[in-house]
Amino acid sequence: MPDTGYAALHEAACARGETTYADPETGFVVFTRDGLLARERCCGAGCRHCPFEHESVPLNRRASRIQQAAWLSDARPQTAREVTILFWSGGKDSFLAYRALQRLGTAEIILLTTFDARSRIIAHQEFDIGAVVEQAKALKAPLIGVPLHSGIDYVDQIVTALALVPECWRLAFGDLHLEHIRGWREEAFANHPQTRDLALDFPLWHAEYDQLMADLEASGAKCQISAVGDALSGVGVGDPFNRDFVARLSDEIDAFGENGEFHTKIVI
């Protein structure tokens, strides 16, 4: 579905009280949020501006259809507990962050995955959102999917997901040691009026790699390479990520691929 150049047109149409606008790429007529609200229910088609959380889209089809943030799992949070939303890529770092948060036991964990609204691919990890749905099912964890559209502020799109979990008070990330990534997150969320009061948590920050590898082994989950950068030779998608893999890497390659040398996928 086209996702470029339409955001401003949509907001302008809503400001004028219009129920449709013309998509700038295809010329197709698209219902505005206000136009869909007038219908009073979700039609189940996965509309671009659905204001009903895509509630009528069958759960087994949501990952491939939704255009707005929506639940992608049957599991839901127990609102009596504090809630932490963990940004989940489906790779080893987010999985190990999940385990670290579980050990604390102080909050219920909800997974949040962003993916390209057109391709349905997880950025960097390079696998389909459907794989993350299967991971959440295996973990019996609540999962929210956020399809990202170009031309719209990233945090604005995350905020639509936070509306599904009003009890959330903390956002967690699987970052290990990249200062510029952590700094960007802290600045981006601190500068948005709807996220600036949320706590940010980095449960793996500066953790020792040996400790992380031991925890990965203890989990019983398998981990495999899902994407490989141009600078890394002799490694293929599907190769196992384990101690033997790390031992074969040259000293110039980060053992956990933190500089983008490779990315991973957890198989539970």
Short description:
The protein has 268 residues and is of the alpha/beta class.
Detailed description of the structure:
- With 268 residues, the protein is α/β, with parallel strands linked by helices.
- It is 31% helix and 18% strand.
- It is built from nine helices and ten strands.
- The strands form three sheets. The protein has a six-stranded mixed sheet, with helices on both faces. It has a two-stranded antiparallel ribbon with strand order 1-2. The chain has a two-stranded antiparallel sheet with strand order 9-10.
- The chain is globular and about 60 Å long.
- It starts with 6 loop residues before the first helix and ends with a strand.
- The relative contact order is 0.13.
- The mean pLDDT is 93.
The largest sheet, given as strand count, sense and whether it forms a barrel, is: 6 strands, mixed
The low-confidence runs, each spanning 5 or more residues with pLDDT under 50, are none
Q: Gyration radius, to the nearest Å? A: 20 Å
Mean pLDDT: 93
Give the SSE map.
Layout (H helix, E strand, L loop, with lengths): L6 H9 L4 E3 L6 E3 L1 H5 L21 H7 L4 E2 L11 E5 L4 H13 L3 E9 L12 H11 L3 E6 L5 H9 L5 E5 L6 H12 L8 E3 L7 H11 L2 E7 L14 H6 L13 E6 L1
Parallel strand pairs: 4-5, 4-7, 5-6, 7-8
Antiparallel strand pairs: 1-2, 3-6, 9-10
